[in-house]
Structures are given as C-alpha cells and as structure tokens.
C-alpha cells in the first residue's frame, strides 16, 4: 500500500467529471495526499465541486484552483493560493491537455499553436513555478502526461504528437537538471484510455482499436492514475527521466 499521507499534489486539468484528471485526484487522495484540483472553465465548477467532496469523503484536504495553465500570471496566483493553504507542494501532475486534430495540409497555424501551448508550454510554466518551492524544500516530483502518440506519431495529430513528444524531451532535460536536488521528473504515455474521446467512437471503431492492443482492451483512467501514484511514491525513489507507457502493450 502506497502511503502519501501529508503530501500535497497538484493535478492540472482536473475539471472533467471523468477522465484521467479525476482518476488522478481520487487515486492520490486514496493514497492519503491532500489535493489541489486545477480547472480552467466555469462550466467545470459542478464537476470540480463534486470531485472535491469525494476527496474530503476519502479524508483528504482539498484546494480548488481556477487557472488557465497557459497563462503564467494565473499559475503564479495558483501557487500563491497553494502556499497560503498548504505551505508546500510535493507533486505536480501536468495533466491538462487538448486535441485539435486535422491533416497537416488543412491544419490551421492557430490550432498548432493552441495545442502546443496547452500541452507543452503549460508544463514549462507550471513546473517552473513549482520548482522554486521544491528547490527550497529539497524534495518533490513532477509527472508530465504525454501520450503514446508522442512516441509513435499519428496521422491527423501533427500538433498533438509534437506537443507530447516535446513533453518527453522536457521531462528528460528537467530530470537531468534536478536529479541532484532530490527532485524526480517522469512522464506517462497512456495509450487508448476510456474517456469522452473514446466514448464518441462507434462500436466498430472500438473493436478495431481493441484488436490492435496486445491486452485486447481499452484502458481505464485508474490504470494511468495508479502509475502516477507509484511514480510519486518512495517506491520509485530511484526512477527519474523515464517514460512509463500505460497502454496494454500497444507500444513496445
Ligand atoms: P480531458 O479532456 O477529460 O481532460 C483534459 C482537461 O484539461 C480538461 O478538463 C480541460 O478542461 C483541461 N484543460 C485544457 N486546457 C487547459 C488549460 N489551459 N488550463 C487548465 N486546464 C485545461 O482528457 P483526458 O482524456 O482525461 O486527458 C488527460 C491527459 O491525458 C491529457 O493531457 C491527454 O492528452 C492525455 N492522454 C489521454 C489519453 C486518452 O486516451 N484519454 C491518451 C493519452 C494521453
């Protein structure tokens, strides 16, 4: 049993009722952590409030932090609130992400910029803000939510693949800079995970995807969350700069 009692964990992009963000929040709370739930849009408020109640029911303390993680002033304010409430930050999960899929020929430059800003630049902004605190604490860990697409590429996702591959390079560079300061940085590369996106696929499309996966099933968000909790725990205290695939064996 992993015990993160007393630690403070920020999950960015945790504004959906389901999905990987919500699963991360609940998995860290079950391990005993206090949680900062980050969300961007007012439409997420009911889902975020419900998630916060679930964290409290598990026994964790919770801070709800509205911030657009692509905007450094928003992120700075979020960390001021975190320090005001908890006085520390132990884990940051850079989970916020978007897709704007299109074949290269028709992809708008703005759609490239938006996806790279949200998925990659945000991790730079948030990690940099966390870093000054973690360096003073002399401890901490960061997890960047990449994707199998960052490892393999995918037609129609030039922007998304670039952002997720970029996160892997960023993870390794940050890990090298910070390894000597007792701060570990890793990435997770989920494959096909049950989400709003996969829910929209037809049964035929789901069957086609399932056939490709060695474990013959689409993954649960909890599998990704459990990997993150492990990477944040003392069980992973000699693991840094790694990319952990959670994909039923799809990429190997
Ligand atoms: P999701 O859309 O449910 O979650 C993404 C969240 O990020 C949303 O709540 C959204 O509001 C939030 N967000 C977007 N821009 C933001 C911003 N600027 N500031 C703050 N929050 C912002 O999707 P998900 O499937 O749960 O994905 C979570 C992460 O996992 C993403 O980074 C995604 O790329 C990655 N991922 C998902 C899958 C999958 O199959 N679902 C596979 C590989 C990787």
Short note summarizing the structure:
With 252 residues, this protein is an alpha/beta fold. Helix content is 48%, strand content 15%.
The residue-averaged pLDDT reads 97
How many beta-strand runs?
A: 7
- Work out the helix count: 9
Share in helix = 40-55%
* Hetero compounds: nicotinamide-adenine-dinucleotide
Question: Your description of this structure?
Answer:
The longest helix has 29 residues, at 109-137. The chain has helices spanning 20-30, 45-58, 72-85, 109-137, 148-152, 158-178, 196-199, 203-212, 221-232; strands at residues 8-11, 34-39, 62-66, 91-94, 140-145, 183-190, 243-246. The protein is globular and about 50 Å long. 44% of the residues are buried. The protein has nine helices and seven strands, in the order βαβαβαβαβααβαααβ. α1 (20-30) runs parallel beside α2. The protein has a seven-stranded parallel beta sheet with strand order 3-2-1-4-5-6-7, sandwiched between helices. The chain is α/β, with parallel strands linked by helices and 252 residues long. The site of nicotinamide-adenine-dinucleotide has 28 residues, from α1, α4 and α7.
Topology:
Layout: E1 8-11, H1 20-30, E2 34-39, H2 45-58, E3 62-66, H3 72-85, E4 91-94, H4 109-137, E5 140-145, H5 148-152, H6 158-178, E6 183-190, H7 196-199, H8 203-212, H9 221-232, E7 243-246
Parallel strand pairs: 1-2, 1-4, 2-3, 4-5, 5-6, 6-7
Helix pairs in contact: 1-2, 1-9, 3-4, 4-6
């Amino acid at each position: 049993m992993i015990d993160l009692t007393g630690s403070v964990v920020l999950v960015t992009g945790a504004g959906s009722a389901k999905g990987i963000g919500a699963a991360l929040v609940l998995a860290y709370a079950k391990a005993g952590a206090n949680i900062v739930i980050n969300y961007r849009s007012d439409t997420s408020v009911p889902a975020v409030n419900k998630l916060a109640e679930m964290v409290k029911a598990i026994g964790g303390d919770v801070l709800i932090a509205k911030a657009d993680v692509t905007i450094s002033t928003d992120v700075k304010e979020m960390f001021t609130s975190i320090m005001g409430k908890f006085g520390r930050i132990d884990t940051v999960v850079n989970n916020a992400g978007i897709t704007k899929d299109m074949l290269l020929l028709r992809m708008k430059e703005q759609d490239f910029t938006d996806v790279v800003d949200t998925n990659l630049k945000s991790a730079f902004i948030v990690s940099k803000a966390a870093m000054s605190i973690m360096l003073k604490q002399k401890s901490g860990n960061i997890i960047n939510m990449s994707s199998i697409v960052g490892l393999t590429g995918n037609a129609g996702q030039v922007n998304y693949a670039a952002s997720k591959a970029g996160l892997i390079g960023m993870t390794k560079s940050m890990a090298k800079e910070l390894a000597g300061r007792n701060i570990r940085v890793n990435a997770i590369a989920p494959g096909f995970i049950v989400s709003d996106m996969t829910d929209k696929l037809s049964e035929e499309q789901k069957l086609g995807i399932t056939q490709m996966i060695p474990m013959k099933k689409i993954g649960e968000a909890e599998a990704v969350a459990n990997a993150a909790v492990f990477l944040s725990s003392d069980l992973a205290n000699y693991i840094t700069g790694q990319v952990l695939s959670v994909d039923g064996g799809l990429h190997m």
